[in-house]
Specification:
Strand order of the largest sheet: 1-2-8-3-6
Mean pLDDT: 91
Structural class: mainly beta
Order of helices and strands: EEEEEEEE
Number of helices: 0
Largest sheet: 5 strands, antiparallel
Low-confidence stretches: none
Shape: globular
Number of strands: 8
């Protein structure tokens, strides 16, 4: 378990690989109210592939809803926030380059 953010459960899938050029994670995001969103931004690019639940991604002023099998690739320097929907956690693979 990696503590990148307190409100998400991050599992680094390649923490023992030396010299890696990407950071692959398995992430679980809890359901929360829209007014509880926390935005982040960081250098690089990010790729999300949905596994379970429904995930709302707020990317700048745009809201997207992802379901299992959906993917999203974006510039991670844009402020973004995530939340599970329907009162359930959302789980996805996340790769940061």
């Amino acid at each position: 378990l990696v503590e990148r953010r307190k409100d998400y459960d991050y599992r680094n899938l390649a923490y023992t690989f030396t010299g890696r050029k990407m950071e692959p994670f398995l992430i679980r995001v809890p359901a929360k109210e829209e007014n509880a969103l926390t935005f982040t931004s960081h250098p690089g690019q990010e790729f999300v592939y949905m596994l379970e639940g429904r995930l709302e991604v707020t990317l700048g002023h745009k809201k997207l809803v992802l379901e299992p099998g959906d993917s999203l690739y974006f510039d991670a320097s844009n402020p973004h926030a995530l939340r599970g929907l329907d009162g359930r956690d959302a789980q996805f693979l996340d790769v940061i380059l």
